């Protein structure tokens, strides 16, 4: 390869990267600019219903019993960028649209199997360790379903109900034991 073609290739790659950065900046400005600002708290009921679909009530408390919706709204509102929050809100709107389109009713009005069917659409199991997933996470960040699962699990496992009733909880931990044998049917430990 001669110097001229190397310079052209480097310039082309730099141009593509600069164009993508400009596009992303303009897109984010369009998301943030003007109009009515939608707050996450407007979707608290939907977030609670999605969380209850992810962690339903069985012999242990469900996500709604643990008050997960309040915590998810607080965590996403405080810990995620404005762009990620807007992307999450757009995902919630898509879930509602999909529910209306497929079943003719809101997500909250659907029964459990219908809710599961709607949410399975947003799973990315086929790309768990793929290069495409790594690029998507790097460029676009986590999608709505990944954020929802992440913060639902954090909220549930750190709640009083989740830690004490769904997980094994030791109120006064003793000495550190790095490896413990677990009995048949024993719950995971809430504290490490």
Give the topology, please.
Blueprint: H1 3-32, H2 44-54, H3 68-79, H4 82-103, H5 112-120, H6 131-140, H7 144-158, H8 160-166
What Rg, in angstroms, do the CA atoms define? 22 Å
Instruction: Indicate the low-confidence ranges by residue numbers.
Output: 31-37
- What fraction of the residues are assigned to beta strands by DSSP? under 5%
User: What is the tally of helical segments?
Assistant: 8
Helix content: 55-70%
Domain module tally: 2
Shape: extended
The average pLDDT is 80
Number of strands: 0
Q: Could you state the order of secondary-structure elements as H and E?
A: HHHHHHHH
Largest sheet: none
Structural class: mainly alpha
Q: What does the oligomeric state look like here?
A: single chain
Distance between the termini: 57 Å
List its salient traits:
8 helices; extended; 2 domains; single chain; 192 residues; mainly alpha
